[in-house]
Design goal:
Blueprint lengths: L3 H4 L2 E3 L2 E3 L1 H16 L7 H8 L6 H35 L2 H49 L3 H6 L2 H21 L1
Helix pairs in contact: 4-5, 5-7
Length: about 170
């Protein structure tokens, strides 16, 4: 016979949780995320956006160039549809060649816009991360000796390094 604990486990993303784990840990975390006092409220977002500072133009250009890239990627299949609907039934090789060259040009421009968007996203993300790490470093420097004793050096280094990198990667994705 299987134990009661084993039968009550749920497999979420290949991690087994007991019902007690779900009630004690996961549900409060989800409630915190959707709570009004959540760390995801607008005050926290506006506080984080203050670290973008001089990299706002790069962040805006990223969105603009991604939009251009997407528009071109959507238009390419429509050009192909025109070749199939107009060029092939009429056996118009000049139309097929002209539309094919337009498709190649659109693909190259889309590639260029993607590269420019990637460069701007990297620049804005790295700048955001730099400003965030600098602010966190100065905040750690302001801690009292009692607070410094409360936090371990490795924990503070993790906050300065890994956590800022995760925020950097999330910013680049947005």
């Amino acid at each position: 016979l299987l134990s009661n604990e084993y039968t009550n486990k749920m497999d979420l993303f290949s991690i087994s949780y007991t019902e007690k784990d779900i009630k004690d840990y996961i549900v409060p975390e989800i409630e915190l995320f959707f709570n009004e006092d959540s760390p995801c409220d607008t005050d926290k977002r506006s506080q984080l956006s203050s670290y973008v500072k001089e990299y706002k133009t790069a962040a805006i250009f990223t969105s603009v160039f991604v939009a251009f890239e997407v528009v071109l990627e959507v238009l390419i299949p429509q050009c192909m549809a025109k070749i199939i609907d107009i060029g092939l039934p009429n056996s118009d090789s000049a139309y097929i060649t002209k539309t094919g060259l337009i498709m190649i040009l659109m693909a190259l421009m889309s590639l260029l816009f993607g590269v420019i968007a990637g460069r701007n996203a990297a620049k804005a993300g790295a700048g955001f991360s730099k400003n965030l790490r600098q602010a966190m470093f100065y905040k750690v420097q302001e801690l009292s000796f009692a607070n410094i004793d409360k936090f371990s050096t490795s924990g503070l280094m993790t906050r300065l390094g890994t956590d800022a990198t995760h925020v950097h990667n999330a910013f680049m994705m947005v």
